[in-house]
Amino acid sequence: MKDSKVTTAVFRTKKSEGWPISMLTAYDYPLAQLVDEAGIDAILVGDSLGNVVLGYNSTIPVTMDDMIHHTKAVTRGVNRAMVVADMPFLSYHVSTADAIRNAGRLMQEAGAQAVKLEGGHEVADTIKAITDAGIPVMGHLGLTPQSVHQMGGYKVQGKDEEAAQKLLADARAVEEAGAFSLVLECVPSPLAKLITSKLGIATIGIGAGADCDGQVLVTHDLIGLVGGFSPKFAKRYINVREDIKGAMQTFRQEVEEKSFPAGEHQFGMDEEVIKKLY
Ligand code: KIV
């Protein structure tokens, strides 16, 4: 399962055979290449683009044009991984026709192999309509950042019995509507485990414990490219921010003391030619 293109069929096989699925975000060509070369199964062009690349304080300002632009850059860098593009806020809420058209643009114009959208029962008809149009859909439940104002902040979801029942029912609705997989974000681990055991489709967790069928992280968290607050689940594997800043400071210092560019960074020319120009 290492070298051929990852498809929805691979997700199904991995779920049924118990092979964990890996997914990371990317929003541009060089990081997409690295994620693909690292052998990650799926690349999510998340609307977290808004937070970690565009400098917004939520995902709400992200537009379809932003998603198309960045998904195009990602798909140009990928050979093997499945590219999943997020449907941004209001791109699937206004009408079903709009939702199909926008999901279709992410595939046709940007080259994604699947789309992701947030919500449960309330978007089940939309998921069905998009999948009926031949577009694979990944669901997203638990903490759904596009509803941050309705949820009253970025909080763990499904903690009491009523909320947990609703999450389970929503997960079933997403599966019945035809989604091929489901992201569970900020859900207590025992609830994510239960949902994973009840669904035939793969669950991909972020802050949802070790018993999901797969895991996703925002790459900028994983490599330490963003400063400031980082959620508990966002394991930082390296801290490139410090290395990059160090390299930039060294460049500035070398420019100021005129030790850069050195001889090996320069182009020469025939001395006779330059003499004539003086
Ligand atoms: O936009 C995103 O990066 C996401 C992940 C957090 C799952 O939706």
* Proportion of residues in extended strands: 5-15%
Number of strands: 8
What are the low-pLDDT stretches, counting only 5+ consecutive residues below 50?
Answer: none
CATH class: Alpha Beta
Query: Can you tell me the overall shape?
Result: elongated
Largest sheet: 8 strands, parallel, barrel
What report would you give on this structure?
With 278 residues, this protein is of the alpha/beta class. It has a single domain (8-242), classed as Phosphoenolpyruvate-binding domains (TIM Barrel). It is built from twelve helices and eight strands. An eight-stranded parallel beta barrel has the order 1-2-3-4-5-6-7-8, surrounded by seven helices. α9 (189-198) links the parallel β6 (181-185) and β7. It is elongated. The protein binds 3-methyl-2-oxobutanoic acid. Residues 25, 44, 46-48, 86, 140, 183, 185, 206, 216, 218 line the site of 3-methyl-2-oxobutanoic acid (KIV).
Helix-strand blueprint:
Elements: H1 8-17, E1 21-25, H2 29-37, E2 42-45, H3 49-52, H4 64-76, E3 82-86, H5 96-108, E4 114-116, H6 124-132, E5 137-142, H7 148-151, H8 161-177, E6 181-185, H9 189-198, E7 202-206, E8 214-217, H10 219-222, H11 240-256, H12 271-277
Parallel strand pairs: 1-2, 1-8, 2-3, 3-4, 4-5, 5-6, 6-7, 7-8
The protein binds 3-methyl-2-oxobutanoic acid.
3-methyl-2-oxobutanoic acid (KIV) binds next to β6.
Tag the structure with descriptive keywords.
single chain; 278 residues; alpha/beta; TIM Barrel; 8-stranded parallel barrel; 8 strands; elongated; binds 3-methyl-2-oxobutanoic acid
